[in-house]
Fold this sequence. Notes:
The chain is α+β, with helices and mostly antiparallel strands. It has helices at 52-74, 114-128, 130-134, and strands at 21-24, 29-33, 39-43, 81-90, 98-108, 141-148. The strands form two sheets. Strands 1-2-3 form a three-stranded antiparallel β-sheet, with no helix packed on it. Strands 4-5-6 form a three-stranded mixed β-sheet, with helices on one face. Helix 1 packs across helix 2 (114-128).
Amino acid sequence: MTDVTAGAPAQKIATKPSLIHVAWAGGHRFDAGRPNGPTARIDGDGETGQSPPETLLSALATCVSYDVVDILAKQRTPLASLEVDVVGERVDTIPRRYKAITLNFRIGGKGIEKDQVLRAIELAATKYCSVRDSLRSDIPVAWTVELLGV
Length: 150
């Protein structure tokens, strides 16, 4: 059997593949996570956990935020708080994929300047976040920033 992968050749990076185990929990509910690790309830009906599309928005927001925290820390500008409200707009046809996503950041910390935060978010969202890079390229991801007094 031959494995054929279409597309551009991938960069060679020595990493292990991600492995996630999903167990059906009845109805449209599933528990997903690393084998023998923590799990998250994903519920297609949104009753006992996030729906799969909501989980995608959460993954994007946390991936970008992870990098923002690291970038600002390297700039010796530690955060006191970071919150993100994510708005995902979906198409009306099946599959109801996202057509646009906006990350609305609220960030607090002593000495943090808006230009610095905007640059950190731009780097995170356009260069470092693997979740963003895994989305379709025609899905615009925008962001806003509100700085909170500390």
